[in-house]
């Protein structure tokens, strides 16, 4: 049996009875997750960890997610209509992944709310047809398998840490309204530098991946936003861990949306997958 098929029955049952966020509840945390792409569905332990994380929180009223796979300026939102078709922005995987669906409810109210949170100098374009890409729907299909939470994806208009922190800060109030704000990337993403042993799981993770992960873990545990923002100058292994930085920089939206960005982050998932760091965390 495929690991996702084995995971799904118990997850559907538990998610169906999960308490929902209600007015008066505490603000939801903001999350950064390493999203895993389709192979997430083949890793039972990883799915269990991600689903357990979702279960420790009330089911949100909605999810607003920034994915590494949508770099676009001006700032844009995915189509809010219910059941908008997904984006299958990957290649070479099992055909079953191109048939998967994740039909979520209408999110028009969230689109209006996000647009209202932005200054006049940064208007938001709402797409009529663009659906969720795999950096959004793959992990959310594990976290909320019924597809019963409205979801919108927000584009990443820059990689500048200060601008992304400011963008996150504009989204901060949404957390107190039951919206889960998520940055979706991968803590290391040096795909061109992986070895055959990494794919086979027969060797420790590459040194550049372990070094970058340890540096990030230390900075996150200390709430050292300045060190994280200076990653281009100080992060060990950067050219290999992130030959392009789009899988790291959603982290700054997550931190910006925190009540206090310098709050130490709570790691929820760690370890390595095919040599890449799966580190994921939340901040209050």
UniProtKB/TrEMBL annotation:
Top-rank lineage group of the source organism: Bacteria
Domain Extradiol ring-cleavage dioxygenase class III enzyme subunit B stretches: 49-260
Source species: Spirilliplanes yamanashiensis
MF terms in GO: ferrous iron binding; oxidoreductase activity, acting on single donors with incorporation of molecular oxygen, incorporation of two atoms of oxygen; zinc ion binding
Keywords per UniProt: Dioxygenase, Metal-binding, Oxidoreductase, Zinc
A Pfam family hit: LigB
Cofactor: Zn(2+)
Record's protein name: Dioxygenase
Lineage: Bacteria, Bacillati, Actinomycetota, Actinomycetes, Micromonosporales
Oxidoreductase listed as a keyword: yes
Family label: Belongs to the DODA-type extradiol aromatic ring-opening dioxygenase family.
InterPro entries, sorted: Extradiol_dOase_DODA, Xdiol_dOase_suB
């Amino acid at each position: 049996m495929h690991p996702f098929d084995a995971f799904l029955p118990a997850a559907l049952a538990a998610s169906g009875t999960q308490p929902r966020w209600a007015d008066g509840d505490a603000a939801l945390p903001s999350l950064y997750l390493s999203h895993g792409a389709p192979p997430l569905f083949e890793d039972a332990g990883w799915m269990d960890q991600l689903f357990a994380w979702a279960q420790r929180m009330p089911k949100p009223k909605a999810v607003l997610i920034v994915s590494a796979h949508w770099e676009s300026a001006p700032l844009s939102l995915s189509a809010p209509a219910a059941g908008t078709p997904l984006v299958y922005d990957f290649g070479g995987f099992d055909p079953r992944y191109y048939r998967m669906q994740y039909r979520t409810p209408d999110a028009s109210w969230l689109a209006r709310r996000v647009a209202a949170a932005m200054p006049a100098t940064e208007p938001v374009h709402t797409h009529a047809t663009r659906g969720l890409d795999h950096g959004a729907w793959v992990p959310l299909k594990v976290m909320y398998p019924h597809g019963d939470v409205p979801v919108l994806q927000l584009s990443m208009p820059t990689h500048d840490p200060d601008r992304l922190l400011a963008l996150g800060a504009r989204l901060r109030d949404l957390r107190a309204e039951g919206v889960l704000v998520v940055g979706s990337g991968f803590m290391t993403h040096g795909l061109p530098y992986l070895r055959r042993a990494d794919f086979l799981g027969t060797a420790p993770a590459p040194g550049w991946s372990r070094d970058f992960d340890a540096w990030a873990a230390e900075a996150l545990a200390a709430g050292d936003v300045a060190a994280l923002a200076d990653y281009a100058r100080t992060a060990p292994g950067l050219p290999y861990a992130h030959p392009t930085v789009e899988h790291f920089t959603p982290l700054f939206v997550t931190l910006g949306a925190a009540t206090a960005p310098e709050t130490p982050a709570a790691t929820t998932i760690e370890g390595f997958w095919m040599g890449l760091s799966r580190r994921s965390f939340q901040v209050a």
